[in-house]
Amino acid sequence: MSAPVKAPVKAILKPHPRDIGGFTVARVLPAMDARLIGPFIFFDYMDQRAHPSLPGAGMDVLPHPHIGIATVTYLFEGALMHRDSVGSVQKIVPGDVNWMTAGRGIVHSERTPAAERASGQLLRGIQSWVALPASHAEIAPSFEHHAAASLPRIVLDGVTLQLLAGSALGHTSPVTTYSPMLYAAAHFAAASRFTFDAEQEERGVYLVEGELALDGTPLAPLHMAVLTPGERVTLTSHAGATVMLIGGQKLAGEHLIEWNFVASTRARLERARDAWAAQTMGQVPGETGWIAQPPRKPR
Questions:
Q1: Hey, what's the torsion of the CAs at 262, 267, 272, 273, to 10 degrees?
Q2: Alpha helices in the chain (DSSP H)
Q3: In sequence order, which residues have a C-beta less than 8 Å from that of residue 260 and are 6 or more positions away?
Q4: Residue ranges of the domains in the chain?
Q5: What is the pLDDT confidence band of residue 53, given thresholds at 50, 70 and 90?
């Protein structure tokens, strides 16, 4: 549920935290008041600081499948090792972008790298899903890694934007995308402000940490403000903040979610479930286990 608000904020989405394997994961998308924002269909904040690791502990997400989306990983602290069924092996560190296009189907795992596991690293970051338009829902799976230094940086009035994907303010990220969108990490210095224009049809503002107000209305940490289409909003921070900006063109058609799968029809979701049950969606080299899918939802 969202809190009642006024224009230019359409709704404020509250986080839904849960503990998963020693991590706190707080999800804001999908929500009743916003199933998607542009192409963004899942938006999760993950934080291990409430569950400090001991040396030898870490994160181990066994191989699991996706269809119909791109998964996007962005870290603030720690590191992860990504492996997938197209043969990618890539370590991600803060500021980088891992963009995995599932298309017709991909399998991947995520684990704490050996050095960070031994030191007892703490992991903190964002994992989001970007739904693919119908024209690209069945493309071949692929993976891209973009180091922080390769991503555009925009500095305006004490606010530094790192453009993770899409386009904004005359700049374009090198990440391959399949619909008009924006994904940026914004770092606000103390006593700074940024005017978020309505370049994108749908937009969201997510406060990771710090203090932020939208046209004078405070936004709580780990909450997302859904902005009214066509309305400009001024973001101000007196004490400093880390903020994620998302948005893009509204996607046409149905985007149904079943476990890790997104598709336009129930039949396509069922085919994906059958393929995973039969272990015909692909294998991650070097991995032997996998995550079992939950029981089918009653119809």
A1: 110
A2: 114-119, 266-277
A3: 64, 65, 66, 293
A4: 2-248
A5: low
Between strands 60-66 and 40-47, the pairing is unpaired
State the Rg of the chain over Cα.
19
Max CA distance (Å), the chain? 56
Q: What is the pLDDT of residue 164?
A: 98
Taking only the tens place, the pLDDT of each residue in 108-156 is: 999 999 998 888 888 999 999 999 999 999 999 999 999 999 999 999 9
């890539």: which residue's tokens? Answer: 90
How far apart are alpha carbons 32 and 11 in whole angstroms? Answer: 10
> Residue 5 above 60 pLDDT?
no
User: Which two three-digit tokens encode residue 31?
Assistant: 């929500």
Report the CATH fold assignment for 2-248: Jelly Rolls (2.60.120)
The Cα–Cα gap between 188 and 158 comes to 6
Joined together, the tokens standing for residue 288 give: 């032997």
Joined tokens for residue 231: 């309305």
Give residue 49's pLDDT band: very low, low, confident or very high (50, 70, 90): confident
Does this model's pTM top 0.90? My answer is yes
Tell me the CA distances in angstroms from 85 to 57, 60, 88, 90, 294, one per residue in order: 25, 17, 7, 13, 21
Token pair belonging to 89: 């092996």
Residues 199 and 182: beta-carbon distance below 8 Å: yes
